[in-house]
Amino acid sequence: MAASAVGIITLVAVVFAGPLAWAFATYVQSRRKAADGAAEAGTSEGQVDGKATEREEMSGVAYTLSLLGYAIGLGNLWRFPYLVGKWGGGAFIIAYLACLVLVAIPAYLMEMVMGQYTRKSTVGCFKMIHPRWDGLAYGQALILLLVMAYYNVLLAYAIIYIAGSLVDPLPWAADSKNYFNVEVLNGYDDYKGKGLGPVQWKLALALLVVWLIVFASLAFGKKILTKVTWVTVVGPIIMLWVLLIRAVTLDGAADGIEFYLLKFDSEVLGDLDMWASACSQILFSLSPGFGTAITMSSYTRPKENVFRTCMVVVVCNSAFSLVGGFAIFSIVGNITFRLNAAGGVLDEATGAMVATTVAEQASAGTGLAFIAIADGMRAFGSGTNAMSVLFFSVLLTLGLDSTFCWAETFVCYVEDYCLVKGRTKPAHWKIVGCICAVMYLMGLLYCTRMGIELLDIVDHYCITYYLLLAVALEAFMFTFDFGWRRLVVHVKLATLGNLRTPLGQDVVPSLFWRLGIHITMPAWCLFLFFYIFSTDVAEPYGGYPVWMQGIGWFCLAALLAVTPLGFARSLKLGTGSTLPPLEEDEAALAAALGIKSTLPPLGQNEESASAEGAKA
């Protein structure tokens, strides 16, 4: 093997693409401000109506970029195509879009508004709405710890593959499946009598690199993080288009795209497992229920239009998944073409070589990215190393954005805790360093020989279950203790007089939003929660050993035990909500509308909708 000049040059270009985009955007913004005479400089970050705010704030661009990076993650380019292949192509896309509209979008807007309104992290926000919900916030903090511990191990895989892409020929060229299972994971052939096993040094080293990147990006404040997100948000978009343009020209790409667009298995629409997969996919992608959207929104400017930002993030997130599907299925189509041209695949039942299909190759689970697509990189000829660097760099940067937001959320929890308790807040870089160190040590559990199996167990029993429960409980919290009317008034008041919304932003159509928040969100999430529970009780998940199933059930039980603590404490102490009276918000809006006599009041439909929401 020799170093690949093409691979090294591509990696250098990838690293510098983001900073160049940030520098160009900064230059354009500075020229625009100079041309406008900095007319709006007086109402910049840290000020609202001329008054200084206490909480550190992000600009609108930084806020949007952070949420985009948070939403567009590994699952968009890896798990989404795998699920499309597993569940019959277009049928899964329909279920995905239905869950997006009826569950994820209402939950996302609800969290963003609550975060901006309270100006607090998730724990503080829920306590302010009503102390009985702080147990839910602590449960969400725990799942943040769990997901950060295992999620970055997937990024460690990408680091190993990026390093492998810098040599020619690719180290997995001879046998991509053996390379992943033996060289990267060194997993066991069976589970009988096995424990987690020793830590694999390659994975441990790659995981250390990932957490060092996270530390360097977060330790020195949000201005540095904003610059980094230009790399991790803009970079994947550019790289995806390069990958897409090249992938669609491969032999067999048309077959892959045909499956992606035209394959429709209507029978699976009645399969609840498919709906559970679709709902968990969009919830994990946008991630309402983690509390991160609440915390990130608490840092945005009070005059920011979170309704518009919500729509931008939702559309871009799903568009990235759908467009990325074209690139992935083009490569999967080529893999299928090459396998069939070579005689097909071995049928273990008959021992004969048989033709394979796009559906079979696309439903390879974790192996879709690290076995099938890695093997598919060989189809790019002289550009093999360059395209391999591009693909695995996309996976890495997509994952880093999500980790940045999760870690920043947890840092905010620690800082807010110090403020509430009246303690001296440690330096920001020290808090970040401690969190990264603890997460790295926890992550070593997933670098063992059975690490990927443990990862799957924790993801299923903790994240899938608790996200569904958390979103349902948040809907109840909003309905009974925050209120639809408060949301409508806040969004209108916050955006009143803005350049793009001089009349204020109306939350329309109100019937859709109220239906989602009050009915479809809690009903569908609770139904899927209990359906998955009954399925796992009847048949242990994944066929994993009993001791590993026990870990999953124990972690879920711990999360469920934490959740009602706030209710018990609230009943004992008799504490209540510390939200300002709704009448104050309505009076402020009325005063603003009275001063600006040309502005119309809330639409009649909004008033009636809000009144109904308040009664609920």
From TrEMBL:
One of its GO terms (biological process) is sodium ion transmembrane transport. It is found in: Membrane. PROSITE patterns: NA_NEUROTRAN_SYMP_3 (PS50267). SUPFAM superfamilies: SNF-like (SSF161070). It holds the Pfam family SNF. It is a multi-pass membrane protein. One of its GO terms (cellular component) is plasma membrane. The keyword Cell inner membrane does not apply. The chain crosses the membrane at residues 6-25, 60-78, 90-110, 136-163, 201-221, 228-254, 274-294, 306-332, 352-374, 386-407, 427-446, 458-477, 511-534, 546-567. Keywords: Membrane, Transmembrane, Transmembrane helix, Transport. It comes from the Eukaryota. The keyword Transferase does not apply. NCBIfam families: Na_transp. This is Transporter. It comes from Polarella glacialis. The lineage of its organism: Eukaryota, Sar, Alveolata, Dinophyceae, Suessiales.
